[in-house]
Amino acid sequence: MHRILFCLLAISAPAWASGPDEPFAQAVSSKYPLPKGIHPLKLVTDYNNNVHVLAKEGLYYFTENDVVRDVRFRPLADKIPVDVTAQETHGHLYYLLGDKLITNGYAGVPYVTFPAGTYDRAVVNAAGNALLSGKGKLAVAEGKNIQMLDAPEEGVRELFVNDGIFYALTPKALYRLAGKALQRLHAGKDVRTVAFRGNDILLGTPAGYYAIRRENGDTAMTLQRKVPVPAVGRLMVADGKIWAGTNEGAYTENGSGGYRYFASGRWLDQDEVKDMATDKDGNIWILTPSGLNRIAFRRQSLAEKTDYFQRKIRTRHIRYGFIANIHLLTPGDVRTAEMADTDNDGLWSSFYLGSQAFRYATTREPEAKRFAWEAFEAFERILSINQLKGFPSRTFERKGYKNSDPERWRDSPDPEWEWKGHTSSDEFVAYIWIAAVLNEMVAETTDEKRRVADFMDKIMTHIIDNKWYLVDIDNKPTLWGRWNPEYINWYPETIGDRRLGSTTIIAGLQLAYALTGKEKYKTEGMKLLNKHHYLQNIQIDYRKIAPTKGYFHDGIDMGTGPWNHSDDEMAFLTYWVLYRYAYNDDLKRQYAGAIRNHWEVERPEKNAVWNLITKGLIGDFDEEATIWWLRTFPMDMISWKIKNSHRQDLTFIPENFRGQTTETLIPLDEQPLHRHNANAFNLDGGNGGRTELAGDEYLLPYWMARYLKVIE
Fold it and tell me: Where does the UniProt annotation place the signal sequence (predicted)?
């Protein structure tokens, strides 16, 4: 069994421009386990694009998505090669056995023998000559003749051939064969591996890599320490770019002076790299102690990437219309996927519903409309499944199968079902967002628009009738469903809840007024804006937000802790509703300033949704960041354990309130998996592959970008 996981790689600096959706370099990571009990040593590809794994137990090769023992040649089936190597240029596979060097190329003619146990390494140049080394032994084989050479006293670590010239690496130096003798080309301290690029020889060490001139050994590139992992065990050049293998993954040059880092289960079955190779198709093969991993590059557009996520979601992520979080009963194995409820089913589902609304507005595809209404059915049922008037349940499930927060579940009047209470402002934001985009982009008939209006009318009536609270079955306000002026204005301007709470409830009231025409929604909204200073609150400068101790709500110190990125998510979804449904143009103008203020604070995170919402409302936009975000968004949505905090190529900044750890954001497919409510600058995270996200986090900004004609 093998697993194929899709990940994104931008190998070179892309050209950013709105317009056609140009294909870009996409990487597909495939993992193939080695047979149990073998101890791999080396990886070799030949001119037929065959991939060979030499192990202590024998020679294996890759076929039909499996690594199997190589028994194709009956005379070699029971042999255990000491070494294998591909001939320079021509790529024929040579076998170093205990007492001979042979190949099946050239009709099997090349053949040289020697006393058993003499040599344990071999390389072959384009002319068919071989350099052999063993304990205290070094020789050149030309045809069937062997010419003994003086071996370095310190012993040979590895042999190489490039452009017809043989090289021997020892713990003390790199030697070049000139005539019949070795010449010391470079005295290098603890060089572990060598690769060749143009006129340079690259040397890997425990402290990084550097380069020398092949003609004289002079320094061509100083020691590169600012790399993801300095302790280089293997070096390779593929398509002109350096690849380094380490005990903590592999990395390559990104074409812009930095590196792309391939580590964790997202890319490799484990991080210890034993060897690397490339083939004629440009695939990168990485050997670990337990697996053979292939990173295959293909040209793919954002539209093709979108199709993948759309299929994936419809296959295993729809639960009663909600987007479902996936538990993997076997970590990393999507065949064991199990859908489960979460604390914020409504909020996460709103991204998917929103994506289908923008898709329908862009393409008029009936399927998109169907999927949007299917998701809305789940939102309608959160109202009808419980016994409370206008109170939205967080989620629901058939009785006996609840998953998250079991103490928050209540029995439904329908004995087959349960519903989850304790509904929060996060969920409220989802309601106003989906109602707005459905009304604008999907609801076309009078009945469809009435469905959306009734949904918002019930929720907003509940909130107003309960003095600006969501009141649960215990007749108490929920922990976070609170918009009462006394509560909102209790917060100082330095705590974000004052601005956010004011923003969300005003957006909801404006939307309800636009959908229903009921005057109470405008009257109450204007009262909050003016009498209770909610308009002033909405315009609080986000740069004022700072740690503010001493403000306790239900035992929680609301002003401590880091920046709340979940609040950013709630705010930007709300801005779409706040601005587009403003009571009047003067308010719209003032809202625009508040949106721009928040967007400027958020720009370093390069979030495509925040960028596109801001563009769609007030025109401000970071186009380069948006396309970069979409391209580097990981297609592998399994929550592998990922670590970046050890990387030496990153520029770290002092600890700060916003939680920004590095000067610039690393690509999303190198970050720990997260939704839009997390800190994009988190460097470490994951749960070992036990869950999988759906990918709606990508679909929404893609279809927004299409709708806004950022991409076509």
Answer: 1-17
**DSSP single-letter state for residue 4:** E
Nearest to 633 by CA among 675, 689, 679, 687: 675
For 687, the 3-state DSSP assignment is: coil
**Side-chain half-sphere exposure of 498, counting CA atoms within 13 A:** 23
Structure tokens at 217: 């050994």
Mean of per-residue pLDDT scores for the chain: 95
pLDDT of residue 18: 56
Query: Taking the CA of residue 385 as centre, how many other CA atoms within 13 Å lie in the half-sphere pointing to its CB?
Result: 26
Query: Taking the domains of the chain in order of start, what are their residue ranges?
Result: 1-34+191-300, 303-549+557-707
Backbone angles phi, psi at 218, to 5 degrees: -65, 155
C-alpha dihedral (330, 331, 333, 339), degrees to nearest 10: 80
Which amino acid is present at 591? Y
Q: What distance in Å separates the CA atoms of residue 100 and residue 98, rounded to the nearest whole number?
A: 6
Sequence-distant (6+) residues with CB within 8 A of 693 are 325, 326, 637, 639, 673, 675
Tokens of 529: 């804006």
126-163 pLDDT, tens digit per residue, is: 999 999 999 999 999 999 999 999 999 999 999 999 99
Confirm whether pTM is higher than 0.90.
yes
* 136 backbone dihedrals φ, ψ, rounded to 5°: 70, 10
Q: How confident is the model at residue 9 (pLDDT cuts 50, 70, 90)?
A: very low
Q: State whether the Cα torsion 90-95-100-104 is positive or negative.
A: negative
- Identify whether the C-beta of residue 348 lies closer than 8 Å to the C-beta of residue 675: yes
How far apart CA 80 and CA 504 sit, in angstroms, is 70
CA torsion 179→185→191→194, rounded to 10°? -60
303-549+557-707 is a CATH 1.50.10 domain: yes
pLDDT at 296: 87
Helix (H) / strand (E) containing 328: strand 325-328
Q: Is 408 helix (H, G, I), strand (E, B) or coil?
A: helix
Which pLDDT score is estimated for 320? 98
- Residue-wise pLDDT for 595-611, tens only, equals 999 999 999 999 999 99
How far, in Å, CA of 3 to CA of 29, rounded? 9
Question: DSSP E strands: which ranges in 163-262?
Answer: 165-169, 174-178, 181-186, 193-197, 200-205, 208-213, 219-224, 234-238, 241-246, 249-253, 259-262
pLDDT in tens, 296-315: 888 999 999 999 999 999 99
| Share of the chain residues as helix, strand and coil, in percent rounded to the nearest 5 | 30, 30, 40
The answer to whether the beta carbons of residues 28 and 298 sit under 8 Å apart is yes
H or E element, residue 308 = helix 302-316
Q: Residues 502, 505, 508, 509: is their CA dihedral positive or negative?
A: negative
Interatomic CA distance for residues 379 and 470, integer angstroms: 16
Q: Do domains 1-34+191-300 and 303-549+557-707 have the same CATH topology?
A: no
Percent of the chain with pLDDT over 70: 97
d(CA 505, CA 460): 9
Q: Rg (Cα) of the chain, in Å, rounded?
A: 31
Please name the residue that has the structure tokens 């470079």.
186
DSSP string, 114-173: --TTS-SEEEE-TTS-EEEEETTEEEEEETTEEEE-PPPTT--SEEEEETTEEEEE-SS-
Candidates 3.30.1490.100, 3.40.50.720, 3.40.630.30, 2.130.10.10; correct CATH number of 1-34+191-300? 2.130.10.10
Instruction: State phi, psi for 158 to the nearest 5 degrees.
Output: -165, 150
Angle formed at CA 294 by CA 289 and CA 297, multiple of 5 degrees: 155
Residue 443 near residue 449 (C-beta atoms within 8 A): yes
Q: How far apart are CA 576 and CA 701, in angstroms?
A: 13
